[in-house]
Every structure is written in structure tokens, then in C-alpha cells.
Amino acid sequence: MMRLLSCRADGGFDLISFRGEIPPYAILSHTWSEGQEVLYDELIVGTGKEKTGYNKLRFCGERAARDGLRHFWLDTCCINKGDTIELSTAINSMFGWFQRAAKCYVRLSDVYVPAEVDGIQEFQSTWKGAFRRSRWFTRGWTLQELLAPGNVEFYSENGIFLGSKLSLEQDINAVTHIPIAALRNADLGGFEVEERIDWVSERRTTVAEDKAYCLLGIFKVFLPVNYGEGEDYAFDRLRCEIARRAGLPSAPNQ
């Protein structure tokens, strides 16, 4: 089951559950702002409109509509995180959801392009430094959000299109050290296990275990989440499952 948003004529949003065939949709990648995101329960009862995160819903809905897409997805409100079974299923499904999105919009909250800039590519000096320093490149979950989709577009906080994953790949490679082939959606199974784990080594997650869980789709493994087990145990379970899927007798050495 996957929930998708659609825009209503009155400016609100409908949240629709799909089972089986999923219609084309856009998906948003972003970094969370503490206390400012519109959550599942708030969207259901129609509250949270005063939060800054409500602008993310508007941005994604409007951008999707321009691209001819009626449906879109945000992690803040399309998952009922109070349901532990649903949360575990969503975490294991996340890579696939991003991979199957028709468009992935990355909204960089710490990159702002002055309104007077005319010709974004001709005046890259106004935003390129902020782009490379963006917090988005430091978070654990945004790793799969970068690698899974084929069509990724980057936008500033004020909605200015900065470029695609392809057009910005040299900058992304310089910041993340992820090979260009991986950025171009090569089969991630062609990269060594330790190399893929290293991609997340300098990234941070709010919850310790998520540093391992955010790699599940990158390794094409399913792992029930167990918050409270700690980062080390989560990585131990991840390595064991990787080894099991590869037919190895034991997990790789840490």
C-alpha cells in the first residue's frame, strides 16, 4: 500500500491509498525542519497549515501539476509513523518508491537564489557554493533519494530550478565522492559492499539505527526495523542479511 497526495480545488490536499497498480507520481526529497513539518495526523484533520512545511506540499503539488502529474508523495505526511508495522514496511519500500517516481524534486532549504538573478546557469556563482554546502548532502536518507530515481531535479528554497542530477553530476561527485556511474543509475550491485557502506559513513541521521536502515534499498535487502537496538547492532543485522542474500557463510568483517 502506498499513499499519494493530490491537490484539491480549494487549495487543500487529498491523501489517497493505492493498492496494486500505482498511478504516475512525483516525489519530494528534502531535509526535515524540527517542529515545522506537516505530519500524517495533521493532514488527515486539516491542521498544520501554519507550518513552514506546508509550503513543501504546495511546491511539490504545483511542480507536479506543471509536469502533468496528478499525484505526489512526501515522507512527512504520507506515512503513518505511529503504526510500527506500516513504518517498517515503508522504510523497506522507500528505495523502490523513489526509483519508480516519474520525477524527484529536491528542495534545498539552505540554497536561495536572489530574485534579480536573470539566467541561473550564467550566474552560478550566486548559488553554486551554497549548493555544495547544502545540508541535504549530509543526511543519511537523502543518499537513496539521490541514487534511486532516474529523473532528479534540484530547486532552491524559493523554487528556482538549479539543474538535474545529470547536469550537476560533477558537483555532486565532488561533494559526495559517489562514482559518476552510480549517479547515472548504474546497477548498484556492481559496487563493492564496503564502498556502498562508505557512502553513508559521513552522513548523519536523527535516529542512530537509521544510518543502517537507509541502506536497505541500496543493497536490495529487507530488514525489519528495531528502533532501540543501536547503530552497531543494526549494521550487524544489515551485514548478515547482505551476506545471506549473496550466499556467503557469514557477514563481512567490520
Shape: globular
Strand-pairing-aware structural class = alpha/beta
Note the total helix count: 10
What distance separates the N and C termini? 35 Å
Major sheet characteristics? 5 strands, mixed
Percentage of residues assigned to helices: 25-40%
Mean pLDDT: 94
Going across the biggest sheet, name each strand in turn.
Answer: 4-3-5-6-7
Unreliable residue stretches: none
- What gyration radius follows from the Cα positions, in whole Å? 18 Å
Count of extended strands: 7
Topology as a string of helices (H) and strands (E): EEEHHEHEHHEEHHHHH
Strand content: 5-15%
How would you classify the quaternary structure?
A: single chain
Account of the protein in words:
This protein has 254 residues and is an alpha/beta fold. The chain is built from ten helices and seven strands. The chain has helices spanning 40-45, 54-66, 84-100, 128-133, 142-147, 169-176, 180-183, 193-198, 210-213, 231-246, and strands at 2-7, 13-18, 25-29, 71-73, 103-108, 152-156, 161-164. A five-stranded mixed sheet has the order 4-3-5-6-7, sandwiched between helices. Strands 1-2 form a two-stranded antiparallel ribbon. A hairpin with a 4-residue loop joins strand 6 (152-156) and strand 7 (161-164). The longest helix is centred in the middle third of the chain and has 17 residues, at 84-100. The protein is globular, with a radius of gyration of 18 Å.
Structure, briefly:
It contains ten helices and seven strands. The protein has 254 residues and is α/β, with parallel strands linked by helices.
